[in-house]
Specification:
The structure holds two protein chains of two kinds.
Chain A (H helix, E strand, L loop, with lengths): L2 H4 L2 H8 L5 H13 L1 H20 L15 H10 L1 H21 L2 H6 L1 H15 L6 E5 L4 H21 L5 E5 L15 H10 L3 E6 H9 L11 E3 L2 H10 L3 E4 L1
Parallel strand pairs in A: 1-2, 1-5, 2-3, 3-4
Helix pairs in contact in A: 2-4, 3-4
Chain B lengths: L1 H31 L2 H17 L10 H20 L10 H4 L5 H7 L2 H10 L3 H11 L5 H8 L3 H22 L15
Protein backbone atom coordinates (compact mmCIF):
# COMPACT_ATOMS: atom_id res chain seq x y z
CA UNK A 1 0.00 0.00 0.00
CA UNK A 2 1.43 3.37 -0.99
CA UNK A 3 1.43 6.36 1.29
CA UNK A 4 -1.15 8.08 -0.90
CA UNK A 5 -3.63 5.20 -0.54
CA UNK A 6 -3.20 4.93 3.23
CA UNK A 7 -4.31 8.51 3.78
CA UNK A 8 -8.08 8.87 3.80
CA UNK A 9 -10.10 11.62 2.16
CA UNK A 10 -11.47 12.59 5.59
CA UNK A 11 -7.95 13.23 6.85
CA UNK A 12 -7.04 15.30 3.81
CA UNK A 13 -10.25 17.30 4.17
CA UNK A 14 -9.42 17.94 7.82
CA UNK A 15 -6.00 19.14 6.72
CA UNK A 16 -7.45 21.48 4.09
CA UNK A 17 -9.99 22.83 6.59
CA UNK A 18 -7.30 23.38 9.22
CA UNK A 19 -8.84 20.90 11.65
CA UNK A 20 -5.71 18.91 12.48
CA UNK A 21 -3.54 19.19 15.56
CA UNK A 22 0.00 20.45 14.89
CA UNK A 23 1.58 16.94 15.20
CA UNK A 24 -0.81 15.41 12.68
CA UNK A 25 -0.37 18.40 10.42
CA UNK A 26 3.44 18.05 10.47
CA UNK A 27 3.22 14.32 9.64
CA UNK A 28 0.88 14.98 6.77
CA UNK A 29 2.98 17.85 5.44
CA UNK A 30 5.95 15.55 5.46
CA UNK A 31 4.01 12.90 3.57
CA UNK A 32 2.78 15.43 1.03
CA UNK A 33 6.33 16.59 0.39
CA UNK A 34 7.35 13.07 -0.62
CA UNK A 35 4.28 12.05 -2.59
CA UNK A 36 3.18 13.87 -5.73
CA UNK A 37 -0.20 12.12 -5.94
CA UNK A 38 -0.98 13.19 -2.40
CA UNK A 39 0.06 16.71 -3.27
CA UNK A 40 -2.30 16.61 -6.22
CA UNK A 41 -5.21 15.43 -4.04
CA UNK A 42 -4.63 18.27 -1.57
CA UNK A 43 -4.43 20.82 -4.38
CA UNK A 44 -7.66 19.48 -5.82
CA UNK A 45 -9.46 19.80 -2.47
CA UNK A 46 -8.11 23.32 -1.96
CA UNK A 47 -9.23 24.22 -5.47
CA UNK A 48 -12.74 22.94 -4.79
CA UNK A 49 -12.94 24.91 -1.57
CA UNK A 50 -11.81 28.08 -3.36
CA UNK A 51 -14.34 27.53 -6.13
CA UNK A 52 -17.25 27.12 -3.70
CA UNK A 53 -16.22 30.28 -1.88
CA UNK A 54 -15.93 32.15 -5.16
CA UNK A 55 -19.31 30.90 -6.42
CA UNK A 56 -21.20 32.33 -3.46
CA UNK A 57 -19.19 35.47 -2.81
CA UNK A 58 -21.97 37.57 -4.29
CA UNK A 59 -25.24 35.66 -4.29
CA UNK A 60 -28.10 37.24 -6.28
CA UNK A 61 -30.03 39.61 -4.08
CA UNK A 62 -33.74 39.28 -3.47
CA UNK A 63 -35.92 42.21 -4.61
CA UNK A 64 -38.72 41.47 -2.20
CA UNK A 65 -37.41 43.93 0.37
CA UNK A 66 -40.83 45.54 1.11
CA UNK A 67 -41.77 42.30 2.80
CA UNK A 68 -39.11 43.10 5.37
CA UNK A 69 -41.49 45.75 6.52
CA UNK A 70 -44.17 43.18 7.23
CA UNK A 71 -46.18 43.41 10.39
CA UNK A 72 -44.61 40.20 11.64
CA UNK A 73 -41.12 41.64 11.44
CA UNK A 74 -42.13 44.93 13.02
CA UNK A 75 -43.94 43.06 15.76
CA UNK A 76 -40.87 41.01 16.59
CA UNK A 77 -38.64 44.07 16.64
CA UNK A 78 -41.03 45.69 19.08
CA UNK A 79 -41.02 42.56 21.22
CA UNK A 80 -37.24 42.50 21.18
CA UNK A 81 -37.06 46.12 22.23
CA UNK A 82 -39.59 45.87 25.03
CA UNK A 83 -36.82 45.95 27.62
CA UNK A 84 -35.31 48.97 25.96
CA UNK A 85 -38.65 50.74 25.81
CA UNK A 86 -39.29 49.93 29.45
CA UNK A 87 -35.91 51.40 30.39
CA UNK A 88 -36.64 54.59 28.43
CA UNK A 89 -40.06 54.82 29.99
CA UNK A 90 -38.55 54.46 33.44
CA UNK A 91 -36.07 57.25 32.74
CA UNK A 92 -38.84 59.47 31.44
CA UNK A 93 -40.97 58.76 34.44
CA UNK A 94 -38.08 59.56 36.77
CA UNK A 95 -37.54 62.87 35.01
CA UNK A 96 -41.19 63.69 35.07
CA UNK A 97 -41.47 62.76 38.74
CA UNK A 98 -38.48 64.86 39.82
CA UNK A 99 -39.80 67.80 37.79
CA UNK A 100 -43.14 67.40 39.35
CA UNK A 101 -41.62 67.41 42.87
CA UNK A 102 -39.53 70.47 42.09
CA UNK A 103 -42.41 72.43 40.64
CA UNK A 104 -44.94 74.15 42.73
CA UNK A 105 -46.69 71.20 44.25
CA UNK A 106 -49.68 73.19 45.13
CA UNK A 107 -50.30 74.25 41.53
CA UNK A 108 -51.92 71.03 40.41
CA UNK A 109 -53.49 70.49 43.77
CA UNK A 110 -55.28 73.77 43.39
CA UNK A 111 -56.27 73.01 39.78
CA UNK A 112 -57.61 69.47 39.73
CA UNK A 113 -59.60 70.29 36.61
CA UNK A 114 -56.37 70.67 34.60
CA UNK A 115 -55.41 67.11 35.46
CA UNK A 116 -58.70 65.66 34.39
CA UNK A 117 -58.57 67.53 31.04
CA UNK A 118 -55.07 66.15 30.47
CA UNK A 119 -56.22 62.61 31.21
CA UNK A 120 -59.18 62.96 28.85
CA UNK A 121 -56.88 64.11 26.04
CA UNK A 122 -54.66 61.09 26.67
CA UNK A 123 -57.55 58.66 26.50
CA UNK A 124 -58.67 60.25 23.22
CA UNK A 125 -55.26 59.57 21.69
CA UNK A 126 -55.59 55.87 22.44
CA UNK A 127 -58.34 55.54 19.85
CA UNK A 128 -55.88 54.94 17.02
CA UNK A 129 -56.84 54.33 13.44
CA UNK A 130 -57.36 50.58 13.04
CA UNK A 131 -55.12 48.69 10.59
CA UNK A 132 -56.31 46.64 7.65
CA UNK A 133 -54.89 43.17 7.17
CA UNK A 134 -53.79 41.23 4.13
CA UNK A 135 -53.49 37.47 4.70
CA UNK A 136 -51.37 35.60 2.18
CA UNK A 137 -51.71 31.87 1.66
CA UNK A 138 -49.50 30.12 -0.89
CA UNK A 139 -49.72 26.51 0.16
CA UNK A 140 -52.26 23.88 -0.86
CA UNK A 141 -51.83 22.05 2.44
CA UNK A 142 -55.38 21.83 3.91
CA UNK A 143 -54.03 22.48 7.41
CA UNK A 144 -52.55 25.77 6.19
CA UNK A 145 -55.71 26.72 4.34
CA UNK A 146 -57.65 26.12 7.54
CA UNK A 147 -55.15 28.20 9.52
CA UNK A 148 -55.55 31.04 7.01
CA UNK A 149 -59.32 31.00 7.48
CA UNK A 150 -59.03 30.65 11.27
CA UNK A 151 -56.66 33.62 11.47
CA UNK A 152 -58.87 35.68 9.18
CA UNK A 153 -61.97 34.83 11.16
CA UNK A 154 -60.24 35.69 14.44
CA UNK A 155 -59.28 39.09 13.04
CA UNK A 156 -62.78 39.70 11.71
CA UNK A 157 -64.37 38.61 14.96
CA UNK A 158 -62.09 40.86 17.01
CA UNK A 159 -62.88 43.64 14.59
CA UNK A 160 -66.61 43.07 14.98
CA UNK A 161 -66.40 43.03 18.78
CA UNK A 162 -64.36 46.24 18.85
CA UNK A 163 -66.65 47.79 16.25
CA UNK A 164 -63.65 48.93 14.21
CA UNK A 165 -64.18 49.02 10.47
CA UNK A 166 -60.89 47.55 9.25
CA UNK A 167 -60.69 45.31 6.20
CA UNK A 168 -59.29 41.80 5.95
CA UNK A 169 -58.28 40.45 2.57
CA UNK A 170 -57.06 36.93 1.75
CA UNK A 171 -54.67 36.78 -1.20
CA UNK A 172 -54.15 33.26 -2.50
CA UNK A 173 -51.31 32.34 -4.82
CA UNK A 174 -49.41 29.17 -5.76
CA UNK A 175 -51.04 26.15 -4.15
CA UNK A 176 -53.08 28.50 -1.97
CA UNK A 177 -55.39 29.16 -4.93
CA UNK A 178 -57.00 25.82 -4.07
CA UNK A 179 -58.69 27.62 -1.19
CA UNK A 180 -60.74 29.63 -3.66
CA UNK A 181 -61.40 26.93 -6.29
CA UNK A 182 -65.02 25.87 -6.13
CA UNK A 183 -64.30 22.29 -7.27
CA UNK A 184 -61.34 21.74 -4.95
CA UNK A 185 -61.70 23.94 -1.89
CA UNK A 186 -62.67 22.02 1.25
CA UNK A 187 -63.84 25.32 2.77
CA UNK A 188 -66.19 26.71 0.10
CA UNK A 189 -69.20 26.73 2.44
CA UNK A 190 -67.25 28.33 5.26
CA UNK A 191 -65.97 31.10 3.00
CA UNK A 192 -69.51 31.79 1.74
CA UNK A 193 -70.76 32.00 5.35
CA UNK A 194 -67.89 34.30 6.32
CA UNK A 195 -68.64 36.57 3.39
CA UNK A 196 -72.25 36.99 4.51
CA UNK A 197 -71.27 37.42 8.15
CA UNK A 198 -68.45 39.92 7.59
CA UNK A 199 -68.99 42.56 4.90
CA UNK A 200 -65.39 43.78 5.32
CA UNK A 201 -63.92 40.43 4.19
CA UNK A 202 -62.59 39.93 0.64
CA UNK A 203 -60.73 37.12 -1.07
CA UNK A 204 -58.53 37.40 -4.10
CA UNK A 205 -56.74 34.91 -6.33
CA UNK A 206 -53.46 35.47 -8.17
CA UNK A 207 -53.82 35.47 -11.95
CA UNK A 208 -50.27 34.21 -12.49
CA UNK A 209 -51.00 31.09 -10.43
CA UNK A 210 -54.32 30.54 -12.23
CA UNK A 211 -52.57 30.83 -15.60
CA UNK A 212 -50.00 28.26 -14.51
CA UNK A 213 -52.74 25.82 -13.55
CA UNK A 214 -54.51 26.42 -16.87
CA UNK A 215 -51.27 25.89 -18.73
CA UNK A 216 -51.06 22.46 -17.06
CA UNK A 217 -54.52 21.62 -18.37
CA UNK A 218 -56.41 22.34 -15.14
CA UNK A 219 -59.82 23.94 -15.55
CA UNK A 220 -59.99 26.57 -12.81
CA UNK A 221 -63.39 27.45 -11.37
CA UNK A 222 -63.29 30.05 -8.62
CA UNK A 223 -65.76 30.61 -5.80
CA UNK A 224 -68.38 33.30 -6.40
CA UNK A 225 -67.22 36.84 -5.54
CA UNK A 226 -63.53 35.90 -5.78
CA UNK A 227 -61.48 38.85 -6.97
CA UNK A 228 -58.54 38.35 -9.32
CA UNK A 229 -55.31 40.36 -9.25
CA UNK A 230 -52.59 40.24 -11.89
CA UNK A 231 -50.00 39.22 -9.29
CA UNK A 232 -50.21 38.37 -5.59
CA UNK A 233 -46.81 39.94 -4.94
CA UNK A 234 -47.94 43.21 -6.51
CA UNK A 235 -51.13 43.22 -4.45
CA UNK A 236 -49.19 42.58 -1.23
CA UNK A 237 -46.70 45.32 -2.09
CA UNK A 238 -49.52 47.73 -2.87
CA UNK A 239 -51.24 47.00 0.45
CA UNK A 240 -48.01 47.30 2.43
CA UNK A 241 -47.40 50.69 0.88
CA UNK A 242 -50.96 51.65 1.83
CA UNK A 243 -50.09 50.77 5.42
CA UNK A 244 -51.86 47.43 5.72
CA UNK A 245 -50.51 44.74 8.01
CA UNK A 246 -49.28 41.59 6.30
CA UNK A 247 -49.90 38.11 7.67
CA UNK A 248 -48.23 35.21 5.90
CA UNK A 249 -49.61 31.74 6.54
CA UNK B 1 -26.22 51.04 35.49
CA UNK B 2 -28.50 48.14 34.72
CA UNK B 3 -30.65 50.40 32.59
CA UNK B 4 -27.60 51.58 30.64
CA UNK B 5 -26.35 48.03 30.14
CA UNK B 6 -29.82 47.05 28.93
CA UNK B 7 -29.72 49.86 26.37
CA UNK B 8 -26.20 48.97 25.25
CA UNK B 9 -27.03 45.25 25.12
CA UNK B 10 -30.00 45.81 22.83
CA UNK B 11 -27.82 47.99 20.60
CA UNK B 12 -25.04 45.45 20.27
CA UNK B 13 -27.57 42.70 19.52
CA UNK B 14 -29.09 44.80 16.78
CA UNK B 15 -25.65 45.40 15.28
CA UNK B 16 -24.85 41.69 15.42
CA UNK B 17 -28.11 40.83 13.66
CA UNK B 18 -27.44 43.41 10.96
CA UNK B 19 -23.89 42.16 10.47
CA UNK B 20 -24.80 38.49 10.23
CA UNK B 21 -27.68 38.94 7.78
CA UNK B 22 -25.54 38.79 4.56
CA UNK B 23 -23.81 35.61 5.82
CA UNK B 24 -27.12 33.97 6.61
CA UNK B 25 -28.45 34.95 3.21
CA UNK B 26 -25.40 33.56 1.41
CA UNK B 27 -25.73 30.21 3.16
CA UNK B 28 -29.53 30.10 2.74
CA UNK B 29 -29.07 30.83 -0.95
CA UNK B 30 -26.45 28.10 -1.30
CA UNK B 31 -28.94 25.63 0.25
CA UNK B 32 -32.00 26.67 -1.72
CA UNK B 33 -30.65 28.36 -4.88
CA UNK B 34 -33.76 30.51 -4.82
CA UNK B 35 -33.26 34.17 -3.87
CA UNK B 36 -36.82 34.77 -2.65
CA UNK B 37 -36.84 31.61 -0.55
CA UNK B 38 -33.42 32.40 0.90
CA UNK B 39 -34.63 35.85 1.88
CA UNK B 40 -37.74 34.38 3.50
CA UNK B 41 -35.66 31.84 5.43
CA UNK B 42 -33.27 34.49 6.69
CA UNK B 43 -36.13 36.72 7.74
CA UNK B 44 -37.83 33.85 9.56
CA UNK B 45 -34.57 32.88 11.27
CA UNK B 46 -33.93 36.45 12.38
CA UNK B 47 -37.46 36.85 13.69
CA UNK B 48 -37.08 33.66 15.72
CA UNK B 49 -33.66 34.74 16.95
CA UNK B 50 -34.99 38.14 18.00
CA UNK B 51 -37.84 36.49 19.87
CA UNK B 52 -35.51 34.14 21.70
CA UNK B 53 -32.47 36.27 22.45
CA UNK B 54 -32.95 35.37 26.10
CA UNK B 55 -31.96 31.78 25.30
CA UNK B 56 -28.46 32.83 24.24
CA UNK B 57 -26.37 32.61 27.40
CA UNK B 58 -22.92 33.14 25.86
CA UNK B 59 -22.66 35.99 23.31
CA UNK B 60 -19.57 34.32 21.83
CA UNK B 61 -21.82 31.56 20.52
CA UNK B 62 -24.03 34.03 18.65
CA UNK B 63 -23.08 32.97 15.09
CA UNK B 64 -23.54 29.26 15.68
CA UNK B 65 -26.81 29.91 17.48
CA UNK B 66 -28.28 31.96 14.62
CA UNK B 67 -27.13 29.42 12.02
CA UNK B 68 -28.75 26.66 14.07
CA UNK B 69 -32.02 28.58 13.87
CA UNK B 70 -31.55 28.98 10.12
CA UNK B 71 -30.94 25.23 9.75
CA UNK B 72 -34.13 24.54 11.73
CA UNK B 73 -36.10 26.96 9.53
CA UNK B 74 -34.78 25.23 6.42
CA UNK B 75 -35.71 21.82 7.84
CA UNK B 76 -39.20 23.05 8.70
CA UNK B 77 -39.58 24.48 5.23
CA UNK B 78 -38.58 21.16 3.72
CA UNK B 79 -41.09 19.29 5.85
CA UNK B 80 -43.90 21.65 4.92
CA UNK B 81 -43.18 21.89 1.20
CA UNK B 82 -41.77 18.48 0.49
CA UNK B 83 -44.62 17.41 -1.78
CA UNK B 84 -45.38 20.77 -3.34
CA UNK B 85 -42.29 22.68 -4.33
CA UNK B 86 -43.18 25.05 -7.10
CA UNK B 87 -40.75 24.01 -9.78
CA UNK B 88 -41.56 27.12 -11.83
CA UNK B 89 -40.10 29.26 -9.11
CA UNK B 90 -36.72 27.52 -9.07
CA UNK B 91 -33.96 28.73 -11.29
CA UNK B 92 -34.52 27.04 -14.61
CA UNK B 93 -30.97 26.02 -15.31
CA UNK B 94 -30.80 24.04 -12.10
CA UNK B 95 -33.74 21.82 -12.98
CA UNK B 96 -33.32 21.48 -16.67
CA UNK B 97 -31.90 18.21 -17.85
CA UNK B 98 -31.60 19.34 -21.43
CA UNK B 99 -29.06 22.07 -21.88
CA UNK B 100 -30.11 24.96 -24.06
CA UNK B 101 -27.43 26.95 -25.90
CA UNK B 102 -27.88 29.72 -23.32
CA UNK B 103 -27.33 27.22 -20.52
CA UNK B 104 -24.22 25.89 -22.18
CA UNK B 105 -22.93 29.39 -22.46
CA UNK B 106 -23.65 30.27 -18.84
CA UNK B 107 -22.27 26.97 -17.62
CA UNK B 108 -18.99 27.96 -19.07
CA UNK B 109 -18.82 30.53 -16.33
CA UNK B 110 -17.29 29.05 -13.21
CA UNK B 111 -19.77 30.61 -10.82
CA UNK B 112 -22.85 29.21 -12.54
CA UNK B 113 -21.18 25.88 -12.99
CA UNK B 114 -20.20 25.53 -9.33
CA UNK B 115 -23.63 26.67 -8.13
CA UNK B 116 -25.33 24.15 -10.41
CA UNK B 117 -23.04 21.40 -9.10
CA UNK B 118 -23.64 22.35 -5.45
CA UNK B 119 -27.39 22.42 -6.13
CA UNK B 120 -27.23 18.81 -7.29
CA UNK B 121 -25.60 17.57 -4.09
CA UNK B 122 -27.84 15.84 -1.55
CA UNK B 123 -29.06 18.44 0.91
CA UNK B 124 -27.17 16.99 3.91
CA UNK B 125 -23.87 17.19 2.04
CA UNK B 126 -24.73 20.65 0.68
CA UNK B 127 -25.35 22.01 4.18
CA UNK B 128 -22.09 20.67 5.60
CA UNK B 129 -20.07 21.82 2.58
CA UNK B 130 -21.39 25.38 2.63
CA UNK B 131 -21.14 25.82 6.39
CA UNK B 132 -17.49 24.73 6.28
CA UNK B 133 -16.45 26.44 3.05
CA UNK B 134 -18.52 29.64 3.10
CA UNK B 135 -18.68 30.40 6.79
CA UNK B 136 -15.52 28.61 7.91
CA UNK B 137 -17.23 26.89 10.81
CA UNK B 138 -15.12 24.22 12.55
CA UNK B 139 -16.44 20.67 12.16
CA UNK B 140 -17.54 20.54 15.79
CA UNK B 141 -19.69 23.64 15.35
CA UNK B 142 -21.22 22.33 12.12
CA UNK B 143 -22.13 19.17 14.03
CA UNK B 144 -23.83 21.29 16.67
CA UNK B 145 -25.67 23.49 14.12
CA UNK B 146 -27.03 20.53 12.16
CA UNK B 147 -27.47 18.30 15.24
CA UNK B 148 -25.43 15.44 13.75
CA UNK B 149 -22.33 13.59 15.01
CA UNK B 150 -18.95 15.02 14.01
CA UNK B 151 -18.12 11.78 12.17
CA UNK B 152 -21.13 12.37 9.95
CA UNK B 153 -19.91 15.90 9.26
CA UNK B 154 -16.56 14.52 8.11
CA UNK B 155 -18.00 11.77 5.95
CA UNK B 156 -20.61 14.08 4.39
CA UNK B 157 -17.97 16.66 3.61
CA UNK B 158 -15.71 14.09 2.06
CA UNK B 159 -18.54 12.68 -0.08
CA UNK B 160 -19.69 16.19 -1.01
CA UNK B 161 -16.26 17.15 -2.33
CA UNK B 162 -15.86 13.88 -4.23
CA UNK B 163 -19.30 14.33 -5.76
CA UNK B 164 -18.63 17.97 -6.52
CA UNK B 165 -15.49 17.04 -8.40
CA UNK B 166 -17.42 14.57 -10.56
CA UNK B 167 -20.30 17.02 -11.13
CA UNK B 168 -17.96 19.82 -12.11
CA UNK B 169 -16.39 17.56 -14.70
CA UNK B 170 -19.86 16.68 -16.01
CA UNK B 171 -21.08 20.25 -16.05
CA UNK B 172 -17.96 21.75 -17.56
CA UNK B 173 -18.60 22.66 -21.20
CA UNK B 174 -17.42 19.92 -23.47
CA UNK B 175 -14.96 20.91 -26.10
CA UNK B 176 -16.92 19.69 -29.09
CA UNK B 177 -14.05 20.84 -31.24
CA UNK B 178 -15.74 21.36 -34.56
CA UNK B 179 -12.45 22.23 -36.09
CA UNK B 180 -12.75 22.91 -39.75
CA UNK B 181 -9.69 21.57 -41.46
CA UNK B 182 -8.65 23.55 -44.43
CA UNK B 183 -8.05 21.21 -47.27
CA UNK B 184 -6.42 21.89 -50.40
CA UNK B 185 -8.97 22.07 -53.21
CA UNK B 186 -6.82 22.30 -56.22
Amino acid sequence: MTLNQSISDELLNSFVDNELESDEKSELLNAIRHDDTLKERVCELRGLKEMVQHAYREPPSCIASPLMKSAHWKHSCIQQNIGRLAACLLLLMLGWWSGWIMSAKSHLANNPREMSVFQAAQSNNVAEKPNNFIVNVSSSNPARLKTALDETENLLEANKRADQPFKVEIVANGGGVNLLRSDVSPFAKRIATMRIKYPNFDYIACKVSISKLQKNGVNVHLLPHTGIVSSAAEEINKRLIQGWDYVRI
Amino acid sequence: MKILSLLCGADSFQKQFEAIRPNLYRVAYSWSHNAALADDLVQEALVKALKNTGQLRDPALFNGWVFTILANCWRDHFRQHREMDDIDELDDHLCSTQNTPEDDHSLSQVVTCVRAAVARLPIGQRQVLTLVDLEGFPYIEVASILAIPIGTVMSRLSRARQELKVLLNELAPQQTAHVSHLRRVI
